[in-house]
Amino acid sequence: MPATAAFDRPSRLGSIGRYGVVFVVTIAAWLVTLPQELDAVPDDVAPFIILDLGIGIAVMALLPLRRRFPLAVAVTIAVVGVLSSAAFGSWILAAVSLGTRRRAWQAAVAGLVSIVTTLVSNAWNPVSLYIERVESAAPMSWWSLALFALLVNTLVMAVGFYLGARRDLLRSLRERAETAEREQASRAAQARSAERARIAREMHDALGHRISTVAMHSGALAYRDDLTAEQVHDTAQLIQENAHGALVELRDILGVLRDDAGGGPPAEEPPQPTIADLPMLVEAADAAGQDVNLALGVTPESVPTTLGRHVYRVVQECLTNARKHAPGTPVEVQVTRVRPWLGRGDLVVEVSNPLTREAGVGGGAASGRRHDLFSALPPGDRLEASVPSSGVGLLGLAERADLAGGRLEHGPENGRYVTRFTVPWPERSDS
Q1: 3-state helix, strand, coil in the chain (%, to 5)
Q2: Which among 21, 83, 205, 321 is least buried, having the fewest CB atoms inside 10 angstroms?
Q3: In this structure, are residues 84 and 55 in contact, taking their beta carbons and an 8 Å threshold?
Q4: How many C-beta atoms lie closer than 10 Å to residue 430's C-beta?
Q5: Which residues contact 95 (CB under 8 A, 6 or more apart)?
Q6: Backbone angles phi, psi at 422, to 5 degrees
Q7: Which residues pair with 293 in a beta bridge?
Q8: Which residue has the higher pLDDT, 277 or 223?
Q9: CA-CA distance, 383 to 360, in Å (whole number)?
Q10: Which residues are registered as beta bridge partners of 335?
Q11: Distance of CA 367 to the CA centre of its chain
């Protein structure tokens, strides 16, 4: 059940208290209208006195229906009031309940019926007529009685309108609080989801780079039977180092996720690489057998940390893709600032490699590398098929470009496969 619905329902104790007050007012209204000399009441008037109390108590049975049929209950009790002054207590509760609906036309109809029945009761009720005749009480004029009834109706309806407005205000405040709590919970869930997605991106980029190195070199060891003992030893050591690094990074990332899921204080993440770490990345790729040439045309200090991390991950993913799909080919990495005269210009990261493996074999740095296990592999070799592709590398790079407010382009250009990551040059680093 919604909390607001439960809030609108009265408590059992509150309902008992209301009916108790109505019963007390019913008895009081009956006692007030009794003749002063009960022993002298004639036999034709006495039954109406008993009937007055009986009707006043019986009409309380209509009160539970006042929430579903507020106008009908209030009008019915007002009509019954012609025979019973004791019904005044039940009428007050029904009229207040009707007023909480804050519908002016219903209040006007109920008030008009009440005024008319009051005038009729005063002119016809046998008990009232007996009291006026025997006790020589000065009768009220019809307009004075109507004015008094109007005043009582106005007061009762005003109480009902006030209670209705207060109830609506409390309901509105409660709904706002519940809405705010739901929105806060939704924002927290979205933040957790975004953080997990970010961690998953970092896991893909970091572990994919290391695991692809392990897979490629272990596959080359299985295919090449002409390697020296020193080459086998160095390659096995490289595989061990990258596997160990992958396990360490996996442990750190899973530790962050586990602490977050456990509800405890978040674990401190290890420092993330930035554009200043690109030379070390290139050195590691060279040690793993890739031929990578880095041209860093910007100073690392001029690039904000977040954008520098994007640049690092873009280069890392591109080197991983080159290692998977074009092993043995030289890779060119350029990080430059273009069009600085047009405002701030753009930061462009361009990574490219030849489309065919033969373009990178037989000369240059690749042919003389101690860890060059791939130069003797023919195009389309089963080694490429031995390294599975996640299929989300370029998608992750596109997401990074969107986060940084830039764009990603990739595809063949002039005999090379080019991946180009372009983002606006950050404002705070104009220099």
Answers
A1: 65, 10, 25
A2: 21
A3: yes
A4: 11
A5: 74, 110, 114, 153, 156, 157, 160
A6: -120, 125
A7: 332
A8: 277
A9: 17
A10: 296, 349
A11: 57
Buried residues in 105-140 as b, exposed as e (16+ CB within 10 A): ebbeebbebbbebbbebbeebbbbebbeeeeeeeee
HSE (side-chain half, CA atoms, 13 Å) at 112: 7
For residue 104, how many other CB atoms are within 10 A of its CB? 10
What is the rounded distance in angstroms from the CA atom of residue 124 to the CA atom of residue 146?
Answer: 15
Weakest-pLDDT range from 144-153, 350-359, 371-380: 371-380
H/E/C letters for each residue in 155-193?
HHHHHHHHHHHHHHHHHHHHHHHHHHHHHHHHHHHHHHH
First vs last C-alpha separation in the chain: 62
- What's at 59, amino acid-wise? V
Instruction: Give long-range contacts, CB 8 A cutoff, 24+ apart: 81-84.
Output: 81/114, 81/117, 81/118, 81/121, 82/117, 82/120, 82/121, 82/124, 82/125, 83/48, 83/51, 83/52, 83/55, 83/121, 83/125, 84/51, 84/52, 84/53, 84/54, 84/55, 84/56, 84/59
Apex 43 CA angle, 41 and 47, nearest 5: 90
For 277-327, the pLDDT digits (tens) are 999 988 888 877 788 999 998 888 888 888 888 898 889 888 888 877 787
Q: Which residues contact 76 (CB under 8 A, 6 or more apart)?
A: 62
- For residue 328, give the nearest of 289, 285, 364, 293 by alpha carbon: 289
Taking phi over 0 as left and psi of -120 to 50 as alpha, with beta for the rest, 381 belongs to beta
Q: What tokens appear for 406 in the block?
A: 């830039």
* C-alpha span between 78 and 85 (Å, rounded): 10
> What are 49's strand-pairing partners?
none
In angstroms, the CA 311 to CA 297 distance is: 13
Question: In what helix (H) or strand (E) does residue 197 lie, and over which residues does it extend?
Answer: helix 142-223
State the CB neighbour count (10 A cutoff) for residue 257. Answer: 15
- The pTM (predicted TM-score) of the whole model is 0.47
Q: Looking at beta carbons, which pairs linking 409-414 to residues 24 or more positions away fall under 8 Å?
A: 412/355, 413/352
What DSSP state is assigned to residue 428? G
